[in-house]
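Structure in, sequence out. Go:
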């Protein structure tokens, strides 16, 4: 049974929804069967599908891309599926190049784990894309290589050759996805990703997923799925309040589902209020500590420099506790805020002659 989605604030709601939905075998299988070429679908033993550990996305790019690696039996070996979901509104011209880097890293790990391999397993690259324009860049690696005429034809045999399997959900499009293969939750998740941030489309097109949403809520894991979907919609439609999102969804579903939606939205709203109160209390404690620290500094050193005062007023509670502990020993106000506390006296070294005798 799938776990409830994380209840910490969402730093990347797109990643959270994609990972939570498609890290479950049933829904991952539906997405892959919908997106892949039919001969590959027929050759894969889907009962052997598993989620692989690890990520190959550069740390600096994890706010824009997230990846999911899966594998399954095919013939005598395994086939790997490398899926990336984008978190950006613009089309990245060299995305196919970046995908190639990630695929090479996956092959590198496979050969490191299985040093006796004489052949590499196939990797199918899948890109889930959503932008204002839809996908406009190359999907084949060879198409981003700058060469033309007879020279290009001569170069092509020496250039890597692969093509992205594109799932473009921009503007309601679904690229090559065959919706009949998707699970109900897979359909709803892709639709939510496709209307991300577009309040008018959310309200206008909710009827498209009404039947799938009813099916999701009727499943044993319906409440966990509903929480994941609602948290995503609340995070990506900031101009709509919780009640408005609830009313939009309630119009599309049956009475039983309406009750579940109201209950979950109330819980999300209560958690938000509790989080706000907790943050307010922490901010109040920090302000009190800051004022106390400024008063102590003034009593000891006189006028406190403006830059020191500004840093104290902007600091969090943990930092203020650390600075307060330095007040009695620091020689200047600036030293109170230094990266290190007052330095201890260096340990006395033994006389040189004594060290020499020891060697």
């Amino acid at each position: 049974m799938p776990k409830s989605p994380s209840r910490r604030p969402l730093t990347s709601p797109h990643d959270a929804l994609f990972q939570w939905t498609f890290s479950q075998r049933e829904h991952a299988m539906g997405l892959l069967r919908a997106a892949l070429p039919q001969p590959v679908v027929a050759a894969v033993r889907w009962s052997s599908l598993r989620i692989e550990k690890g990520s190959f996305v550069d740390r600096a790019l994890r706010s824009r891309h997230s990846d999911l690696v899966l594998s399954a039996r095919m013939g005598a070996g395994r086939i790997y599926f490398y899926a990336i979901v984008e978190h950006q509104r613009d089309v990245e011209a060299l995305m196919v190049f970046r995908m190639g880097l990630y695929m090479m890293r996956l092959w590198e790990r496979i050969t490191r784990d299985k040093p006796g391999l004489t052949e590499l397993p196939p990797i199918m690259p899948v890109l889930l894309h959503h932008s204002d324009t839809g996908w406009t860049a190359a999907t084949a690696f060879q198409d981003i290589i700058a060469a033309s005429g007879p020279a290009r034809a001569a170069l092509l045999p020496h250039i890597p050759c692969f093509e992205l399997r594109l799932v473009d959900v921009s503007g309601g499009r679904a690229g090559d996805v065959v919706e009949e293969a998707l699970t109900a939750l897979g359909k709803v998740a892709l639709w939510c990703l496709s209307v991300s941030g577009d309040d008018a489309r959310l309200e206008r097109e909710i009827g498209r997923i009404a039947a799938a949403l009813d099916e999701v809520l009727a499943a044993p894991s319906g409440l966990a799925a509903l929480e994941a979907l609602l948290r995503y919609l609340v995070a990506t439609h900031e101009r709509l309040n919780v009640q408005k999102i609830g009313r939009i969804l309630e119009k599309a579903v049956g009475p039983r589902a309406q009750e579940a939606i109201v209950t979950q939205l109330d819980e999300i709203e209560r958690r938000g209020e509790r989080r706000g109160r907790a943050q307010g209390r922490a901010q109040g404690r920090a302000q009190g500590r800051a004022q106390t620290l400024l008063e102590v500094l003034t009593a000891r050193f006189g006028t406190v420099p403006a830059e020191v005062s500004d840093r104290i007023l902007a600091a969090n509670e943990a930092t203020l506790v650390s600075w307060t502990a330095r007040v009695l020993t620091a020689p200047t106000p600036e030293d109170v805020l230094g990266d290190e506390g007052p330095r201890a006296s260096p340990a006395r070294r033994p006389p040189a002659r004594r060290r020499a005798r020891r060697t």
